[in-house]
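REQUEST ID: PR-0412
SUBMITTED BY: lab tech R.K.
PRIORITY: routine
TASK: structure prediction, single protein chain
INPUT:
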Amino acid sequence: MTSGTTPATAPPLWRLLHATAGVVQAVGEGASATPALAAVPGPLRAGTQALAFAALRQMGRAQALRTLLARRAPPPPADALLRTALALCWDPAQAPYEPFTLVNQAVEAAKQQRATAGQASFINACLRRFLREREALVAQTDGSPVARWNHPSWWIARVRQDHPEHWQDILRASNEQPPMTLRVNARRASAQATQQALADAGIETHRSGDHGLILARPLPVHQIPGFDDGVLSVQDAAAQLAAPLLLQGLVPAAGQRLKILDACAAPGGKTAHLLELADADVTALDIDPDRCARITDTLQRLGLSAQVLAADAARPAAWWDGVPFDAILLDAPCTASGIVRRHPDVRWLRREADIAALAASQAALLATLWPLLRPGGRLLYCTCSIFRAEGQDRIGSFLAHNTDAVLGPAPGHLIPQSAAAAAAVPDNSRRDHDGFFYAVLDKRPV
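STATUS: complete
OUTPUT:
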């Protein structure tokens, strides 16, 4: 277990488990894990995040086990602590600590906090019984798809419907810890030279695409040579496809620079990649001013510049100058179903009805932004989703209603950790990328 602190200064495990249970409780009550983790004291945050993500990836199993151990849930703080301990220790092969240690420290966490002190004996009894009867209890939960796959039942059914040949691969991959992938700033260095420089610093990487490097072992970004200097950024291998897909073959008018819109740009990774690959005038939009500040920070670190606007892409009358764009990147708001290994709380926060609502929003954005593109220009539609309603179905509907749109070469649905993904991204032989969807839409010339 890596908590981001040295053994001499590492906080006691019971404190980490208490903080982790707080994150689990927040997610169970419908809140994102991000603000819950931000509220954790600094010395505890890295270790809490690692434990919370591990617990959320196993929460379906933990919930099923808790139901067997106590059909009536205890008060929310105690229930969250109990489920956290069960999620972390039910499978000794994946446990971040020895199960007996996790149980002892979970009971200590209950004793140390006013909200759970009255439930310490109950938590102790449940967890001790689990240790004694682990094999039988786990076997009883094996028949539950939610326990087996650690996703809501509707999510499992949807993935199985959308990807009948790969649904098990997708769910299995979604429960794995993702790799840390870097993007080399092509204006500053080559991937080959940067890989060698990292190797000289004792950091092993594997190539991924033209500009990607996958770290053999994740590191804090400020410990990676070249990050603070703007040579490297963190960006998943699938996300690194966006800028090349949008730019490939696009040529500006004589004496002009490409005019590009990044319509939903925060936190700025794709904006920066566009500027690393092309001399272009880029407008980067995001509706949230705080997230716009992140775009600006990202560009400043990399020595790049763009017009960053806090604006709603769906309301161009408020920000568009009337001059058509050569290219538009629409990384549309979506369920984030393709990145749940990085954000394991998403699966427990989303509801099935969210898919239709987000698909309607995606359709509206496509309809709004398409007229802003010049004839002969290109729009790249992408989502970090594996659901067809947000990908293939959305683009099929758009093409049926827009005869001036031509579908260009693009990967379509990228399926993490499957044979289909390996074929779609041949450079990524390790298949370490998130789930994504890409569609290139070229506008017919007049």
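NOTES: Residues 353-369 form the longest helix (17 residues).
REVIEWED BY: pending
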